[in-house]
Specification:
- It is a single chain.
- The chain is an alpha+beta fold and about 425 residues long.
- It has a single domain, classed as Cytochrome P450 (Cytochrome p450), CATH 1.10.630.10.
- The protein contains 17 helices and 13 strands.
- The strands form four sheets. The protein has a five-stranded mixed beta sheet with strand order 2-3-9-6-4, sandwiched between helices.
- A hairpin with a 2-residue loop joins strand 7 and strand 8.
- Helix 9 runs antiparallel to helix 11 and helix 11 crosses helix 12.
- The N and C termini lie far apart (about 60 Å).
- It holds the Pfam family p450.
- GO terms for molecular function: heme binding; iron ion binding; monooxygenase activity; oxidoreductase activity, acting on paired donors, with incorporation or reduction of molecular oxygen.
Length: about 425
């Protein structure tokens, strides 16, 4: 049994952090080729040792490990200034278990089926505003669409004036790049521009969320509401350990910041691939037109998330020594299953650079080879909602449009906050069907 950490780059930690956040699709494959897997990165905060793993057996060790030892909240520390101390992504131990227990009913199968109608209505309304034809940046349009879904489905917001006020603030806030994210974690920089602007925007969002929570708690028709906020407020009121207003605000901030951006990005990558592969697009459109179960469309979504993971890695900080893949790592080490490397492993995915939805027809992907939503006890609580929303959006897009590529149709992954979106915002030519 090996002890200690494997080798890795020797660049300064700040440089490694900037490179890893800015271009993980380059850094991880390059480091894997140079040092093998696992390898070690030294990242922010100062002194953080991150060991990247990708072998399914290693990933299983991490996801099956005790949540009391493998802390995800500590691993996501960079997100604290954006999401708040009580975000589900930053909690560990009993606090995380309590919050997840209170949040889970709002993401149950019956509740998601209930959200579907509203998602369909919002999607149809938003697509009616898209150009009938011509060149677009699909990622921009999709961000507007999924933000509307979050505001309406999650918060039940219908006040047009309030929606108009919040849209640009939320859009600016979630557009934070790697330098902004690192700077927010450094107190001295938080007093300087442009970080002061980000902090003001965050404060505006907090006021908005506090207003929504207060309004929901006082709403005499709360029992009849089906939006996610209403479900959470009712659950908190019915539970002696219910979420406080501050805790609820941080959970809603997480849904707001992560929920719409990730789905919009996943849909942008999917549309780019459909434009690059007309025969796959035609098969999806034919399946939809026949009114069949959208098994192939579901496979397209899964393959897109494989080839273009929105989040490139997950983090687990060890609270005591633990063994992963036969190597024992010391307390304080962060073990990071690399989604990028796992999704491009030839052993799991022959010709891994090819876009091939057939991989997912009839097979359930294993949680150690397909992990766009993380895994284990910390798997994304909104994964089923995201897949439902993605299917609704792609279905309606393909009912209205034929998607044609611009140039080669290829776009490089670019980082903002902790997600990877198409560099040119998914340029496409739309043609009416």
């Amino acid at each position: 049994m090996d002890n200690g950490v494997p080798s890795g780059p020797r660049l300064p930690g700040l440089v490694q952090a900037l490179l890893t956040l800015s271009a993980p699709a380059v850094v991880f494959p390059a480091a894997a080729r140079r040092y093998g897997v696992p390898f070690t990165l030294e990242l922010m905060p100062k002194g953080r040792t991150v060991v990247a793993v990708a072998d399914p057996a290693d990933i299983k060790d991490v996801f099956a490990g005790s949540p009391s030892v493998f802390h995800a909240g500590k691993g996501n520390e960079l997100l604290r200034p954006l999401l708040g101390d009580d975000s589900l992504l930053l909690q560990d131990g009993d606090a995380h278990a309590r919050a997840r227990r209170l949040l889970a009913p709002a993401f149950g199968r019956r509740e998601i089926a209930g959200y579907r109608t509203l998602v369909e209505e919002v999607t149809a309304e938003q697509l009616s505003r898209w150009p009938r034809s011509g060149r677009v940046r699909a990622h921009v349009l999709l961000n507007e669409l999924t933000l509307e879904v979050i505001l309406r489905v999650v918060f039940g917001v219908t006040d047009s004036e309030r929606l108009d006020r919040m849209r640009p603030v939320v859009a600016r806030t979630v557009d934070a790049g790697p330098v902004m994210m690192i700077g927010l974690a450094i107190p001295a920089l938080r007093r300087l521009w442009p970080w002061t602007k980000e902090i003001r925007d965050l404060a505006s969002i907090h006021v908005f969320l506090d207003e929504q929570i207060d309004s929901a708690r006082r709403d005499p028709a709360l029992a009849d509401r089906r939006d996610l906020l209403a479900l959470l407020v009712r659950a908190s009121a019915d539970d002696a350990q219910g979420l406080t207003d501050e805790e609820l605000r941080d959970q809603l901030m997480t849904l707001l910041a992560a929920g719409h951006e990730t789905t919009a990005t996943a849909m942008a990558w999917s549309m780019l691939e459909l434009a690059r592969h007309p025969h796959i697009q035609d098969r999806c459109a034919a399946e939809i037109a026949r009114g069949e179960q959208t098994d192939y469309l579901d496979a397209v979504l899964k393959e897109s998330l494989r080839l273009h993971p929105v989040v490139p890695l997950v983090m687990r900080e060890l609270q005591e020594p633990a063994t992963v893949g036969g190597r024992t790592y010391p307390r304080g080490t962060t073990i990071s299953p690399s989604i990028i490397l796992a999704h491009r492993a030839p052993a799991a995915y022959p010709a891994p650079k090819d876009f091939d939805p057939e991989r997912f027809l009839g097979d359930v992907p294993t949680p150690t080879t397909w992990l766009p939503f993380g895994g284990g006890a910390r798997r994304c609580i909104g994964a089923s909602f995201a897949m439902m929303e993605g299917e609704v959006i792609l279905r309606q897009v393909l009912e209205r449009y034929r998607l044609d590529r611009v140039g080669s149709g290829r776009e490089w992954p670019r980082a903002r906050n902790v997600t990877l979106y198409p560099w040119r915002r998914a340029r496409l030519d739309l043609r009416p069907r």
